[in-house]
Amino acid sequence: MIREQPTTESAISINHLTVSYGPVPALLDVTVDIPKGKLVGIIGPNGSGKSTLIKAMLGFVKPDLGEVRIFGREAAAAKGMVAYVPQRGAVDWDFPITVREVATMGRYGHRRWWQDMSRRDLQIADQALAKVRMTEFASRQIGQLSGGQQQRVFLARALAQDAEILLLDEPFSGVDAATENAILEVLRETRQQGRTLCVVHHDLSTAAEYFDYLILLKQRMFGFGTPEQILEPQLLCDVYEGNMKVFAELSGTRSAGDRSP
Ligand SMILES: Nc1ncnc2c1ncn2[C@@H]1O[C@H](COP(=O)(O)OP(=O)(O)O)[C@@H](O)[C@H]1O
Ligand SMILES: [Mg+2]
Q1: 106: Cβ below 6 Å to ligand 1?
Q2: Fold (topology level) of 2-92+164-250
């Protein structure tokens, strides 16, 4: 297994993490240290436990074994430090709420339940909407947006949280090229502020360009390292079991070797 030794402070420490929903573990004995201030991609085939890893970092699922620590604290105790953009399919888009209301939800964690939003909170929410270029849609119901616009609004909510760590589950899935670039730009700006980002990503052809490090997952950790270390034909072949689409995607960026179907 490839394991990069991070030289900087670690933001997220995952130790021997095992999570299961039924008899078969979704994650098995995953150990990785995610350095602070980096943009980290989580890759692996469908059902490989990528979303489960994100949920474990959020303290949403309880480990069978092992633990996740956020800047040294238990995940469940560090919720305010972590913002989350869920997979689009996991959100009820018929819920009657406007774009501005979604962004404002990012500020709830900064208020007590009896406190109203301050003018400052609303300002921060509006700034987040501006950053993802959704200001003109502020009064629109979220159900009336395109997929890419919905993704931007949830990114705005996460930005408004002002959290040290951002976790995004397939933010580029089903969005157009303009939205993909807009989201990427915001992620890079957020990294520039010293924040740590983990992003579930399915397009291997852009993985090397987008991320500082990659986590390769299929129930177990198959590797953590730079894109150059992880996007190795043999390693990918083991994990994706020779899935030709994966190698076709990669052939634009580097040679995947000679693989007959
Ligand atoms: N709520 C759940 N109940 C039962 N099984 C689940 C649940 N969520 C995920 N799983 C199973 O756990 C495994 C990992 O799922 P997931 O983390 O969603 O993978 P990925 O995001 O990589 O596609 C899959 O086999 C999936 O069917
Ligand atoms: Mg998933």
Answers
A1: no
A2: Rossmann fold (3.40.50)
